[in-house]
Amino acid sequence: MARSKDNRPNRPERPRMSVTQARDDLQRSGQQQGSPGMLIIALLGTLAFIAFYYHGLVLEQMTQLTGGLSMLDHRITGYSLEDVTALAAVMDDDALGQLNWVHKTAGIIFPITVALAVSVVGAWSLRSVPLRWVTLASGVIFAVVDIWENIAIERALHELTADAVATASLLTQLRWVLLAVLIVWLVILLIQRLRRRSSVD
Fold it and tell me: pLDDT of 12-41, one tens digit each?
């Protein structure tokens, strides 16, 4: 061991850490523990799976119980009393019960997942607090309209009245318009976030 002039062993110098180094270490530590982006990817993946299951599988399979007639949920442009009457004529109690079960399960999970995904992506991507609240409100409104539409569709199939059908048809059209707007908004938010991240890097 090296000794100083007064015959005392020299102590090794302690490494000094600057503020910049500490900040960089904290950033790297946060990245290693996980990023909100991973949560967003998982949430969007869940949403895509539920959407495919609900609209691509379950509701499409319901057409086998109606002789090929599509469910009212998928009639984007709306429907008339004659359309609902024709559908109700080929749906027995078992088919109506199956539709009710679908609406109470995937029909509730899907709009809630959409609202959650929109809210989380908005909070992650937007810096403006008012815009975050608007995004959250939009997701909640969609969920309310979607669930209300499920109830209105079943009422229309049971009552077969002009008022019930008109309400259900309007909600179906409104629901699809809101869903399209939210999908476009989600894409815009994600692109904006990616651009901001690339500019920082």
Answer: 555 454 545 544 554 454 444 456 778 888
* CA dist., res. 26 & res. 30, Å (int): 6
Over the stretch 152-162, which tens digit does the pLDDT of each residue have?
999 999 999 99
Answer for the pair 125, 193: CB distance below 8 angstroms, yes or no.
yes
What's this model's pTM, rounded to 2 decimal places?
A: 0.79
Backbone dihedral angles phi then psi of residue 91, each to the nearest 5 degrees: -110, 115
- Alpha helices, DSSP H only, in the chain? 19-33, 36-51, 59-61, 81-89, 93-104, 106-125, 129-159, 162-200
Relative orientation angle of helices 106-125 and 93-104, to the nearest 10 degrees: 20
CB atoms within 10 A of CB 119: 18
Give the count of beta carbons closer than 10 Å to the beta carbon of residue 76. Answer: 13
- Is the pLDDT reported for residue 2 higher than 90? no
Three-state DSSP at 77 gives coil
Q: Which residues are registered as beta bridge partners of 9?
A: 3
Q: Are 172 and 83 in contact (CB under 8 A)?
A: no
Closest CA to 114 of 140, 92, 134: 140
Two structure tokens written together for 36: 């909100």
Span between the terminal Cα atoms of the chain, in Å = 46
Element (H, E) at 126: none
**167 and 156 in contact (C-beta within 8 Å)?**
yes
Q: Who wins on pLDDT, 163 or 11? A: 163
